[in-house]
Design goal:
single chain; 3 domains; 6-stranded antiparallel beta sheet; 23% strand; alpha+beta; 630 residues; globular; 9-stranded antiparallel beta sheet; 16 helices
Length: 630
């Protein structure tokens, strides 16, 4: 196995000016691992400065006319200590028509804190008054509440000892502070005992990392400052452990039409770049990533997490627990547990959950992702799903009126939800089991279900696709050999992309969808590295020789021997059996693997790489670093 290039050079004098070409347009990073702590910190700060200079500079804003400045640009200018008078004038203008909700609140807080010593008294007063006059909507998701309560907490600390008539909540500063602190600790307790509901998100990582960075930077209470810092370590350790050459892959609690096929095209890639420099950032540095850059210098990436992301020299098998999005209806359990597996190798990664309704709109249950030296524009993934569209499913997880749900969600930024050819979403009628790099997905779709078929996504970047007479479909993705076995007849349709956001049109980006219009159905995928075989034909021969039997009636069921010699029996809605032993999910830990380990209800995460170890203990609010002796 090839190891990453490790630099033993002494720290270099790194320039602090923004490069002529932003990193999202430049060649991909080299993969060099910086061992020297000073050099690593300097390189990190240079990337932070690149983001700030790009957004604050005239090349982005066109001019210093206040009419051209938005809150992100103002924040970067204040972080750099520039143009205070221009920023003040624009802040006063923006505050005349304030917004509402978490995505307005945290930029407002960011500018308020960065501008404490720079903005004019009039501009600071304009910001303060919006927190009196404008009712703020709290939102209805985990990331909304993290942003909302962090924002309320920090503003209550910035303006203490004020009465309820000075706040949109009608509560005093002390009451707002207590409510916000209580929720934030509650969320941290949930995350560190039973896992996040929005685990492994492609974009929403920023909606947690940014408020936690703000908390770690600005909270006056040392307890909350420490909690913010520890949560950043927790979030970034998971990111490092779930990436392949810096690219976050599945399964995902929430994703979208772009990043589910182009795995790199997500805000998570911006964080991999700025923290670890092991993949290019997304254009514009991920949008929201701008705000992280304004406080990023206050955070130092722990070496053990940096090395986990960049210096991976062995296969990684990780078993974790998380939880679903909250169920408001049709469930006796508030947030059922999610059991997820990640198997990462040098050339590819395979990941899955057990295949339940995790998020009615944006969940992603499983995939195989292969490595690309430059992932931009590459659809480096293979998976199947039931394209579930259901008012009942949406009612289960959204506390709103049921009638407009499907039409409303397709209009409001989730354009593919009610499309039969979609490639995003989880289903109540899918069950998945993974053993190393073998995935079995089974489907038992009731009669009368909307979209009674399954879709398999086949990328434009697959090579040598071969529909073999054996029933297997073979292909190459990068340096990975892939075998896909549909369990029911199918046909091909063109993949038409529906971009996220407000776009309603489709576009042909290449690729096809294997559509199998059968209620009883299934998919088997087996991956391997090309280094394991003399040729692609040798891989095909090995796959054809695997013992495999299956049936679809009355209930889909598979018995097979995997390429790794495991004997698996998996029947829809029954416990999987591996080598004669039933899989008992109830015994799974919160994290269990070579690098991340934590007990359910433990509030403690141990992060390990080689001899390096860091323990985040939320019971004592302590961070302990050590070097393991041999």
């Amino acid at each position: 196995m090839k190891h990453p290039m490790i630099s033993l050079m002494l720290p270099l004098a790194l320039a602090v000016s923004s490069p002529a070409q932003p990193s999202f347009e430049a060649p991909p990073p080299s993969g060099e691992v910086l061992v020297d702590t000073g050099q690593r910190r300097a390189a990190y700060l240079q990337r932070v400065n690149e983001v700030l200079e790009w957004r604050a500079g005239d090349g982005h804003t066109q001019s210093n006319d206040p009419a051209n400045l938005d809150m992100a640009t103002i924040a970067t200018k204040l972080a750099l200590g520039r143009d205070a008078a221009v920023c003040s004038a624009r802040v006063i203008e923006i505050m005349q028509d304030p917004g509402t909700g978490p995505f307005w609140m945290f930029p407002n807080v960011c500018v308020a804190y960065l501008g404490r010593d720079l903005l004019s008294a009039e501009a600071q007063a304009a910001i303060r008054d919006t927190w009196r006059t404008t009712r703020q909507l709290r939102g209805d998701t985990e990331n909304h509440w993290a942003m909302y309560y962090t924002s309320l907490y920090l503003m209550a600390e910035l303006y203490p000892d004020e009465s309820g008539d000075q706040w949109y909540t009608g509560k005093s500063s002390a009451e707002n502070l207590a409510e916000a602190k209580d929720y934030l600790i509650h969320w941290m307790d949930l995350t560190t005992t039973v896992g996040q509901g929005e685990y492994n998100p492609t974009h929403y990582l920023g909606e947690y990392a940014i408020p936690m960075a703000m908390l770690a930077s600005w909270a006056q209470d040392p307890e909350m400052r420490q909690r913010g810092h520890m949560m950043l370590d927790w979030l970034f350790a998971e990111l490092a452990n779930n990436t392949l050459k810096g690219v976050l892959r599945g399964p995902n609690s929430r994703t979208d039409e772009g990043s589910v096929i182009e795995r790199w095209d997500a805000l998570a890639s911006y964080f991999s770049w700025i923290l670890f420099n092991n993949t290019p950032p997304t254009p514009g540095y991920g949008g929201w990533g701008i705000y992280f850059a304004t406080v990023a210098s206050n955070y130092d990436v722990p070496e053990v997490i940096y090395r986990l992301a960049t210096d991976r020299q062995e296969d990684v098998l990780q078993r974790d627990r998380a939880r679903t999005r909250r169920f408001w209806r049709y469930s006796d359990v508030l947030s059922p547990p999610v059991y997820k597996i990640n198997y990462l190798r040098r050339d590819y990664a395979v990941g899955s959950t057990q295949g339940i309704l995790n998020d009615a709109i944006q969940g992603h249950a499983w995939d195989v992702t292969w490595a690309e030296d430059d992932p931009r524009g590459k659809h480096n993934t293979l998976f199947s799903l039931h394209p579930h569209s259901s008012s009942r499913a949406m009612q289960s997880q959204f506390a709103t009126y049921p009638e407009p749900m499907i039409k409303g969600v397709t209009f409001e930024a989730k354009p593919s939800y009610d499309s039969p050819d979609k490639v995003v979403g989880t289903s109540s009628f899918e069950r998945v089991f993974q053993d190393l790099d073998t995935v079995i997905a089974l489907y038992d779709i009731p009669e009368g279900t909307r979209f009674p078929h399954i879709n398999g996504f086949f990328s434009k970047d697959l090579k040598d696709l071969d529909e073999d007479q054996s029933g297997w479909i073979f292909a190459r993705g990068g340096r990975a050999y892939l075998a896909y076995r549909p369990l029911a007849p199918y046909h091909w349709i063109k993949y038409l992309h529906r971009d996220g956001g407000w776009a309603k049109e489709t576009e042909d980006l290449g690729g096809r969808i294997l559509t199998s219009p059968h209620l009883k159905n299934g998919t088997i995928v087996q991956a391997a590295s090309q280094d394991e075989f003399e040729s692609f034909d040798a891989f095909k021969t090995a796959i054809r020789a695997l013992p495999l039997t299956f049936k679809l009636e009355p209930t889909p069921s598979v018995e097979m021997t995997t390429l790794r010699g495991k004997q698996i029996t998996f029947t829809y809605d029954q416990a999987p059996v591996v080598d004669g032993v039933k899989v008992d999910y109830s015994k799974w830990k919160l994290f269990e693997g070579p690098h991340l380990n934590a007990e359910v209800d433990g509030r403690k995460l141990t992060i390990t790489h080689g001899r390096l170890q860091r323990v985040l203990d939320f019971n004592t609010l302590t961070i302990a670093d050590s070097v393991i002796t041999r």
